[in-house]
Design brief:
With 270 residues, the protein is an alpha+beta fold. It has helices spanning 4-18, 40-45, 121-125, 141-148, 155-159, 169-180, 193-214, 218-222; strands at residues 23-28, 50-56, 59-64, 68-72, 78-82, 92-98, 103-107, 114-118, 253-257, 260-264. 29% of the residues lie in helices and 21% in strands.
């Protein structure tokens, strides 16, 4: 699943290639994604200029000359750019024909992605209980402490809760907790103030580092769709089940928490 750094990389990639391009035609090959793309979608997008693409949580918001195109990559969504000789490939669901004749294609095998037009994005986001953006100043020790009071759920589950903090994601939560020496299983309200400060600091750092190593080339932008992306080589604990902990050399374990893999070192993380 694309996590925040991957979405950021896709955003950067898109901005390099589609800024200030006009949408000349819209072809919807498959209407049913997570939402059903309405028949008005084409009419709303047609002749709009793409001013810029922004990331909002794990959503991509395309600022158009008229309104917004809102997209969430879901589990397997990705964008690709093709020239005018483009032939539809498997799982290509939406095709935007741009003023430079290029085709911007949304591909999504599992179709959990969101694709919609909104005059005003606030109407769409208003109904969503969103916590702080991890890279914002709002996401601080004080903020997290407040959110965690009385929460007895495991700290990992709480950090994955979008109403607490947005889109750190499974990989980067694992990396953060490892760096802080905090077990993913620890009840959230039993994490000390010192540890909370570390969690805030390291989650920001881990995400920034991932975004940095994601770069902004088209190559990276194309492979930004999977959990096993470019950041994998730098991962300290995620995906390393059975391999030796880099700090204490006992095997890394993987337990299921709310259905998600949770990699951790039982000796380094208390
Ligand atoms: Zn260890």
């Amino acid at each position: 699943m694309p996590e925040l750094p991957e979405v950021e990389t896709v955003k950067n990639g898109l901005n390099k290639i589609i800024k200030n391009k006009k949408i000349m035609d819209v072809k919807v090959h498959k209407k049913q994604l997570r939402n059903k793309i309405p028949t008005t979608f084409k009419k709303n997008l047609l002749n709009s200029k793409i001013i810029e693409v922004r990331r909002r949580a794990k959503y991509l918001v395309f600022d158009l000359s008229q309104g917004k195109l809102i997209n969430h990559l879901g589990m397997t969504g990705n964008w690709k750019l093709k020239d005018s000789s483009y032939k539809k490939e498997k799982h290509d669901h939406v095709e935007l024909v741009l003023s430079n004749k290029k085709r911007l294609i949304y591909n999504d095998p599992r179709r959990f992605g969101v694709m919609l037009y909104s005059k005003n994005e606030e109407t769409y986001f208003a109904g969503k209980k969103h916590g702080a953006e991890p890279l914002s100043r709002e996401y601080s020790f004080k903020y997290l402490k407040n959110k965690l009071i009385n929460k007895i759920a495991p700290i990992k589950a709480v950090l994955m809760d979008q109403a607490v903090v947005l889109g750190i994601g499974n990989i980067y939560v694992a990396e953060t907790l490892y760096k802080c020496g905090v077990s993913p299983l620890r009840p959230a309200n039993q994490v000390t103030d010192e540890e909370l400060k570390l969690i805030v600091k390291h989650s920001k750092q881990v995400l920034k580092q991932a975004i940095k190593s994601g770069g902004s080339t088209i190559k990276d932008f194309k492979k930004a769709g999977g959990e096993s992306g470019y950041f994998q080589t730098k991962l300290q604990v995620y995906g390393r089940e059975g391999e030796l902990c880099r700090k204490c050399h006992i095997p890394v374990e993987n337990i299921k928490l709310s259905g998600r893999s949770s990699f951790w070192c039982p000796s380094c993380q208390k």
